[in-house]
Amino acid sequence: MTLATPETKAQRVNRLKREKNPWECLAEIRQFARQGFAAIPPEWIGTYFRWWGVYTQGDGVGAVGGKGGEGNAAPYLMVRMRLPNGLLRSEQLRTIADLAARHARGVADITVRQNLQLHWVTIESLPDLLDSLHRAGLTTLSSCGDVTRNITGCPLAGVDAEELCDATPLVREADRLLAGNADFYNLPRKFKISITGCRVWCSYPEINDVGFTATERVVRGHREVGFSLRVGGGLSAEPHLAQRLDTFVPWHQVVPVTRAIAEIFRDADCLRTSREKARMKFLFLQHGWTAESFQRELERRIGHSLDPGVPDNPPDDVYRDHVGIYPQKQEGFVSVGAAVLRGRLTADQMRSAADLAERFAGGDLRTTNMQNLLIVNVPEKNGDVLARELDGAGLPVAASPFWRGAIACTGAEFCKLAITETKGFTRWLVEDLEERLPEFSQDLKLHVTGCPNSCGQHWIADIGIEGKKIKVDGRLVDAYYFTLGGSVGKFAAIARLTGYRCLASEVPAAIERLLRRYQAERFAGENLRQFLARHGDADLRGFLAGEEVEAVAREVAVGPAPQGVEV
What we know:
The protein has helices at residues 9-19, 26-35, 42-46, 90-103, 126-135, 168-178, 254-266, 282-285, 291-302, 347-360, 383-392, 401-405, 423-436, 507-521, 528-533, 537-545, and strands at residues 54-58, 73-81, 87-89, 107-110, 116-121, 193-196, 210-219, 222-231, 243-244, 249-250, 324-327, 333-338, 344-346, 364-367, 373-379, 406-408, 446-449, 463-472, 475-484, 496-503. By secondary structure, it is an alpha+beta fold. Among the domains are: 9-135, Sulfite Reductase Hemoprotein, domain 2 (Alpha-Beta Complex); 404-545, Sulfite Reductase Hemoprotein, domain 1 (2-Layer Sandwich). The protein has a five-stranded antiparallel beta sheet with strand order 1-2-5-4-13. A five-stranded antiparallel beta sheet has the order 3-14-15-12-11. Helix 6 runs parallel beside helix 7 (254-266), helix 10 (347-360) packs antiparallel against helix 11 and helix 13 packs across helix 14. It is globular and about 60 Å long. It starts with 8 loop residues before the first helix and ends in a 22-residue tail after the last helix.
């Protein structure tokens, strides 16, 4: 007798996707709501829900509470809203606040892709939540799963005084093309796109599958704005910076080129054999593709050669969070950016921000990739008073570098893949550092991620810490492994593995030692990135530890491929 070979994880997911397009099955979700959580079949729990921006919430213990690197699920759901370019109206934010109060225990999180997401949602309340969002002009469609995720862009698009162009129409057109389109519901894995017209690349094209950045050329004496194109970026446990193609993409070709790249990804069967190696970056990392071979295939798909590239001037060491008060291109108006610590908002804060956007501006808000919230089109005379009102709501416009620069993933509070709790830890870490280093004034990217999957983007941070567990007196406690010197833009680089790990309780002291060493020994005008770059790993470990220590291994756990877990 021949025994049937069990399906691999990748084979099972691919079969389920072939059998059903979840976007066509909203009626099933409504049926589950009537029947209760116990009636939801495993294929919906583990796969189909994600196409609707929904996945099950962890039980608060994280990965260590389950098996195979994945924790146990609680009978609650995370629901992620799709906000292309981070665009949000005050009435929409007020709707989200009301839904958070009714269905999500009064909190929402801004993610590193400009989404907003809710936790603690029950299956019984899910249809009301989806319907309420739809009435407000919002959707959760295509926010998770093997589809095109939220398309990011500059949150100041259309108002930035220095932008080359307002790329919002392109973001919206690409969103309409890909989100909910049955031609693209079955991609090998998640697919992330950034389209920006700004000069500081605040939407991180370097770490997207597709990154368009505005540039310009002169044709017969006339200035033309178009886009440079990068492909294959991504972080997770194996980070890879996007490869620049040798092309200048005119405005009218951006969406057709985006479609062709999505088709290349969709049709790459070599990426469907392993869930852990299914992102587009693995064409470059494992399958021998280069920027040149990718461009040849792209040109074959679109049916013509692409125009040759022109210099695109990656930004220098600039801070990309937009927190503060900045003049707009519209004379007499400013944007006001508030720092949202670890991206977490209460229902009351969301209502306050919506009310303030209407009182002092025209009701336009934006979310950012650094988990912050902006109000735009503010009459200049209202800027300072709006900033004071936001500060009173716990959303400071003039925050410390630690508050501004802190990013945190969802962590073990809700995520089944997380090893450590991150949101509460990050708040404690920031407050501790503010007490230890009140004089520190340099821009700083301090990213906290609860597992190797880098949803907190620690690979591109000045100081990144990755969640681990250490056994102390026979029990497992939270710890963090340090990565240093990550950057994007002109000096784009993946952060270095320092070989230093410590208990979570010791992290503030380690960072204080490092930053005090920087303050004491930096050259004139030297920023932290430059200081870290001129020191070896052994030196950096010593700075963190306060003494010479041996390197420890990073210990990447083998577990499930991350599924829709970016914060």
